């Protein structure tokens, strides 16, 4: 029966860690990220859920004869902002999985 106390302790620790993980994830989801391309001509804003919440395009970059450039700038800024979200997510959530055996989460 002695092992039962250790198991209860371990379960409590796991529940505490899970609560902290959920809180960290909620905070991450509420964060705002932004990236620009073309020297600030295009700005893309996203939240921590990887949802694009805004796209700002400077008037001078809108050229009907060069739509491809504008598309490239939007893609570049979007990829960059999503990369920022991934990096923050990995650093935030990674603190909970350090040292755990693979596949535990």
Automatic annotation (TrEMBL):
GO MF term set: DNA binding
Cellular component annotations (GO), alphabetically ordered: bacterial nucleoid; cytosol
InterPro entries: YbaB-like_sf (IPR036894), YbaB/EbfC (IPR004401)
Matching SUPFAM superfamilies: YbaB-like
Record keywords, A-Z: Coiled coil, Cytoplasm, DNA-binding
Cell compartments where the protein resides: Cytoplasm, Nucleoid
Main location (coarse class): cytoplasm
Coiled-coil parts of chain: 7-34
Cross-referenced Pfam families: YbaB_DNA_bd
NCBIfam families: DNA_YbaB_EbfC (TIGR00103)
UniProt-listed PANTHER family: NUCLEOID-ASSOCIATED PROTEIN YBAB
Cited function: Binds to DNA and alters its conformation. May be involved in regulation of gene expression, nucleoid organization and DNA protection.
Family assignment from sequence similarity: Belongs to the YbaB/EbfC family.
Quaternary structure annotation from Swiss-Prot or TrEMBL: Homodimer.
Name used for this protein in its record: Nucleoid-associated protein SAMN05421503_0009
């Amino acid at each position: 029966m002695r092992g039962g106390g250790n198991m209860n302790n371990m379960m409590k620790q796991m529940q505490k860690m899970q609560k902290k993980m959920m809180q960290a994830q909620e905070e991450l989801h509420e964060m705002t990220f932004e990236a620009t391309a073309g020297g600030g001509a295009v700005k893309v804003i996203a939240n921590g859920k990887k949802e694009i919440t805004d796209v700002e395009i400077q008037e001078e970059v809108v050229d009907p004869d060069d739509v491809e450039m504008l598309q490239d700038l939007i893609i570049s800024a979007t990829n960059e902002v999503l990369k920022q979200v991934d990096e923050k997510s990995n650093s935030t959530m990674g603190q909970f999985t350090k040292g755990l055996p693979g596949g535990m989460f």
